[in-house]
Amino acid sequence: MTEASILLFRACLALLAMPIYLLSFLGMWEPFCKKIFFPFFLEKLFAVHNRKTLKQKQELFRNLPEFTGPSGELKLLEIGTGCGTNFQFYPPGCKVTCTDINPHFQQSLSRSMNQNQHLHYERFLVAAAEDLSQVPSGSVDAAVCTLVLCSVQDINGALKEVLRVLRPGGAFYFLDHVAADHSSWKYFWQQVCYPTWKLVFDGCCLTREIWKNLEQANFSELKLQHISVPLPWTPIKPHIIGYAVK
Question: Where exactly are the transmembrane stretches of this chain (predicted)?
Answer without folding.
Answer: 7-29
